[in-house]
Structures are given as structure tokens and as C-alpha cells.
Predict the structure.
Amino acid sequence: MNLNEIEVLLEKQRNYFSSQHTKSISFRKKLLKALRIEVALREQEIYAALQQDFKKSQFETYLSEIGIVISELDLTISKLNSWARPKKVKSSLLNFPSSDRIYSDPYGSVLIIAPWNYPFQLAISPLIGAIAAGNTVIVKPSELTPKTSNLIASIIEKVFEKEHVAVVEGGRDVSQNLLKMHWDYIFFTGSVQVGKIVAKAAAEHLTPVTLELGGKNPCIIDETANIKLAAKRIAWGKLLNAGQTCIAPDYILIKESIKQSFIDQLILEIEKAYSQNPEFSSDYPRIINEKNFKRLKMLLSDENIVYGGQVNDEDLYISPTIVESPDVTNELMKDEIFGPILPVLAFKDHADLERVILRYNKPLSLYVFSSNKNFITKILDTFSFGGGAINDVMVQFANHRLPFGGVGHSGIGAYHGKATFDTFSHKKAITKRANWIDPPFRYAPYKGKLSLIKKILRLLG
Ligand code: NAD
């Protein structure tokens, strides 16, 4: 779609929004229900698209794409009436008599730009909240997962009028054309680098943004942790989607005394899940494209590989790989790895943890495995990060009551469950005054009223 076509489409959406159609809660619910039916009907097509795009298994596709979308839809449909109802708040005595309410108002025309790594879920989950809040929406899925992008376009076309919700497919050029437009809200999920481009484009129009970005997520293990369980959970979290997950543990920081037993246990768990040759496991996905494959392959030049390190150029396969004690200045420890390579570093004390973790910008997630309450509390108090888990990895994503988002370089804003509805709603604050009394003290002339206003404000304070 070229710039001119995008302009025409957006203009149509603006007119549609102005027609007030999207303000009706029953209209929003009707469409969310239709979307739910369509997603369920197309389940097999979603599996096929993800399989063709990067060999993602049906189980992982249900767990991390379809299942999440369906439960967000169910929750939103069942809660929308109460979320959208104006919220009464206590009024200020200064305004006596009055009643005060917060109205959830749609922003208007919203742009959602999605990444490739959970290409269905990360396009549709924010869309659910944007529709629920009463916006018109254009979704731009990732060009790196073309089958899923096509399928998203086809599902959306089936359910929505183009004036209300439309999909614009394409790569960087299309994305940049979209960003030239004046949006009322932009929701972006992707890399830090592109996040900055989005933030700059949004600033041009003072458009509010949510940026869901990435980071280098530490995973800390002390000697009081249940090593066997930690290894099992970390192997699962690191290798889901072949490590191409924004909240995957990026590197391990572990007490030296338990490092070797953890590595042994991790290898056992990897082989239990994917066999000794994961290349032939139908559960193990591939790297998304040549560019990322080459980047990861280069990281495999580290001489401290203690497990894995195999690649297949033709199939973009990289085996689960463990690198022991790489130097923090190594390429591997520079940026988010975003692949199935796990560095395991040792730490002695809290100062060591600070030295490593604070080298990087604030991560999206942090994980700690320990049974020591004081140790856990100190970590949660010391470090700033988007969110995380204790004694597990990535599971924070599964609770819609926990807002999901980064801080600093890992993102701005948060969503999931009600937080998604709130993200796409402007909170319009309204004070309704009564007319039966009108205390005179705020009006000029002010002579002799200063001490009175001081007293009143103190009383209210
Ligand atoms: P990406 O930033 O390369 O692409 C994301 C989207 O931006 C795509 O739709 C793409 O077409 C578009 N885009 C790419 N280059 C652009 C440019 N120059 N100008 C405008 N638009 C452009 O990210 P990706 O490779 O698809 O995804 C991986 C990254 O996303 C990782 O860094 C990961 O941590 C992050 N991520 C974050 C979350 C989260 O929820 N915080 C979730 C998934 C992925």
C-alpha cells in the first residue's frame, strides 16, 4: 500500500470514528464475539501459517498465540460493560457540592505495529483492547512471517469493515509510510532500535505511544534454589520459540559452587524435551531469517561452548547451546541474544550482580531462583526492570491481572487484560457541579479571603 492509499484509508477511518459508530458498547462486543468465532474457526489455518513461517509446533502455537488471544477475547467480552462504565470517584470538598467521574474515551485512530516472533498474538492482543476501547485500527503485521500476516489480513477482513479495522501488510517502507500519518495512538512491539524511530515519528504529532521492546534479561540463581526444577523451567523458557522471545532469560548468573551441577541438569532437561538431536524434533522451531541466523552463528564463535553449537545453514537451525563464563565484553554479552544460546556466568556476591546487570539498559524481565527471602527482596529492590518471576521464567505473561511492559529502554506503557483497555482509552475526568449553592470565597474581590482559603485548604489537605 502506498502513501496515498494509506491516507485514503485513514481518512475513511477518521470519518467512521466521527460517525460515533464505535462508541456503542454493544457494537464493540458484537465485533469482539465475531472475532472470537473467526479465530476459533481458523485454528487449523493458524497452525499451518506458523508452521510454514518458522516451523512452530501446534502445541506452542496454541499455548503462546491462539490460547492467549482466545482468553483475552473471553475476558474482554465478559468485562467490557464494567470496564467502560464511568468510574465514580470521591469529589473534592473544594468543589462542594459536586460528583466526579472518570470516563474511558477512545483515542480515535490507532496504529498497531507488530513483530514477527509471536506474529499472531502480538498483533491481535493489542487489537482486542483497541476495539474494546472504541477506536478504529490499522494493524501492520510483520513481513518476516508472511503466511501469518496474510492470514491476519484475511481474518480481519472477514470480521470488520475496512473503515473500522484494516490490515496493512508490508515491511519497513510501509511501516515508515504509516508512521508519517497523524495517529491518535501508536502501539508498537519490536526492537529498541525501531522503537526509537516510532517514538520520533509519534513526537512529530504529539501522539501517545506504547512501546513494547526488548532487553538483556538476567536470570539469577543462588545456592538455595531447587536446581533441578530451575534447570527444567529455564530450559523450557529459553528454548520456547527457539529463544526468540522478548522475555526469555538472556543469560544466567549463578553461584560458582552450583554452576556445574546446574549445567549438567540443564543438558539433561534439554535432551529430555528435544532429544540429543533437536534438529529432528518437531517441537523445535527455526531461526526466523538469514539475517538473524548469521548474527547468531557469529555468536557461536565463542570458545567456551560447553554444549550444542551445531547449525544447519540450509534450514536456519541452531541447536540449544550453553556457553560457560563468557567475558562480559564478548559479542555474546553485548545485546539481547534472541536465540537458543545461553551464557552461564558465575557471581560471588551482590556487588558482582550489580556489576553485570547494571552494564545494560533496564531489561524487560528479570528472574530469580532462590529460597532465600532476603536475597530475593534485595534483588527486587535493587534493580529496575519491566517485570519478572521468582522461581520460574516467563510465566508472568500468563496472568492478565499483571500489566505487561518494559521500563526505560525495554519500553513505555503496559497492557494485558484490563490494562489493554486502559491503554487505548483516554481517561476523561469530569466534575459535575450542583447549582443549589455557590460558596462565594473563590470569587474576586479577594480582599480579606486569603486566611479563609488557607484554612480551607489546610482542612482539605
Ligand atoms: P523489529 O523492530 O525489527 O520489527 C517490528 C516491526 O517494525 C515490524 O512490523 C517491522 O516491519 C517494523 N519495522 C522494521 N524496521 C522498521 C523501520 N526502520 N521503520 C519502521 N518500522 C520498521 O522487531 P522484530 O525483529 O520483528 O522483533 C524482535 C524484537 O522485538 C526483539 O527485540 C524483541 O525483544 C522485541 N519484542 C518485544 C516484545 C514485548 O512485548 N516487549 C514482544 C516481542 C518482541
About this structure: The chain has a mean pLDDT of 96. Residues 3-213+412-426 form a domain with the Aldehyde Dehydrogenase; Chain A, domain 1 fold (CATH 3.40.605.10).
